[in-house]
Model the fold of this input.
Amino acid sequence: MTDESVPAPSPSGYPYVAGQIILYGVDLNDANQVTTLDVGLPGQTALQIRLGGPTRITGSTVLAYGYAFDGHCYRFDSNRIFIVTGPNAEPAVGCGFDEVAGYQMWRIGSAEQMLEISASLADAKTLILDSQLPGRRSPTSYAITLRTAHRNGRLSND
Done:
């Protein structure tokens, strides 16, 4: 993919759709709408993902390589896995993904809810203990510390 690539045109005929993100990647679902991921465990162990519930939910498990927003193409620093439940996949157009067969694209709104799946394989020390070291914690844990921080000798904002 080159940086001079252009995102896919809008299907509505308008050159610009506000808030639209075009996600480029491949659909990992099989014919039964099940995704099977090799997560690196020994043997033939795999993680299977299937959307289900009291109402029928259709969606795609997308291995995403890049996206387009506001007329520009971007690539993720590493491949990411998303579950997209809104739009159907279309053949990829634009951003260089139309040059190789097999890529698809999903047109999603910037406010649409998605689920990102992140799999990490390591020992317990790395996944639990090392992830809680300063600088590796989630930003919300720092926000809690900030709210209870010292205020010039006062214990309240009065």
